[in-house]
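Model: Ready when you are.
Researcher: Fold this.
Model:
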Amino acid sequence: MNAGTKAINALLLVGAATVLLAAPAISHAEESETAQDVTAQAVVSAPVEARAVKRTRDGNVNTYTTFAAEEPFSCTWLQETEVRGVYVKWYTLPDSVILVQMDENGVELNRETVDEPVFNDYYPLLETTRGLQIWSDSGMQIAELTLYSAGELPDGIYDWQPPVQKADLLVVSAHCDDELLFFGGTIPYYAGERGLAVQVAYMANGERARVDEALSGLWHCGVRNAPVFLPLPDIYTETLRDALIRWGEDTTLDTLVSLIRRFEPEVIVTHDLNGEYGHGAHMATAYCMQEALPLAADAAAYPDSLKQYGVWQTQKLYLHLYAENAITMDWNISLDAFDGKSALEVANEAYHMHVSQLEYHRNIYSAGDLSSAEYGLAYTAVGADEAKNDFFEHIDFTRLTTYVAPAATDTPEITATPEPTPTQTPEQTAAASQEVSIQSNFNPLTYAILGILALAAAVLICLMIRRRKKQNNRS
């Protein structure tokens, strides 16, 4: 065997060894890590009626099964079945939920009380869980219940966090879809791009399917904290007076004061006083928000929410299309968080998830009488806007949830530079440190690529040598 052949064999061995070492990592990377729907592998013991169970599995949020107070949904599965989470779509929100996990012998492993469920709620389960019970002290209505294996949740299945503790921006929308249709890029820009704590609240909603549409749209815009759905009826009116009669003016004020005190927003954005296209619910939302803002800061107003949350003074209130102190937002700005798409593009993508509403409006208005870029500063505790292109102009950044307070001490920490070991020269120490740094950047995929390159190089060398041999033989 000549030197050239030995070199080729050595390169082949090195490349093959590298690929073999990296193979487990490659295999793992190629595996599907998406959680699977394993609901069909579970046996439901309650409810006992087959039609009731079917309604929780038919993929239709408008059908549901009703459970009386403390009446459970109960199911079990075999030892070999992997269930790591349960996704529940509530038809109506229960006051609270109790979730009990059990082992294969029916022994309780864990009991959890969920004090504030969200409409689409994901509950992780223990690896050893083989049975599940869910009930509510006040009764419950389950539209859908799905069991999932380990892995990343599939598209459209979202693990919502509870509503925020403290909001930077509160967006108050009369209905599901108004938060995009009339407020344009507000949510993708401030929630998705700037990472502020954006809390969305809906005044009224009459259809369960619209809740799912709203949740999909908000998630697409970068919102991860669940919106709140206020308990006002969804009734169409064409005047402010009729809307206030249907909702009750004092009830609406009480609801909004409680909302402000609960979330303590620095900035609020809501509807046009004229109801955009003349919708009474939009008018009532804007009118009552103006009234509620000073009441939320009044210790003599609405004692129930005062006792629960205390008073709160919001810094700024913007109304859509408000003529005074007008500002124009640029929703065509490119957003890094959305791969360069504009805020308006992202908002339009989210709006098109409101499938039930597309027959009324096809796209978000970016100009014209109903432009989603036009607002007015209806209240300010921090002075008038000057640049007029940011809802948070003049807001003290230390009040925002993104603010990180500096360390208690201003004295920088001094880190001593380690001396080289006696057995190494400084040059050797630096070289070793560089080698460790380089190695730390390598992962199994890197080794796999190197192995493939080594094999390719070996094959290329082999072909070149063979070609040279042929040329020598001919000569």
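Researcher: Now this one.
Model:
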Amino acid sequence: MTLEERSNLVLAFAQVLFVNGQATEQTVTAAEQLGRTLGLRAKVMPRWGNC
């Protein structure tokens, strides 16, 4: 799995959690943990609105 594929997987995972009602902090923590498991140094920074 390429770096881009692993990164996209982490982002998709976070999106699914958030859309399905997971609390923001729990979503961030879970996504960062998945990133570490996949060998990434992931830092998830949530944002709201059209920024």
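Researcher: Key takeaway?
Model: The chain has a mean pLDDT of 91.
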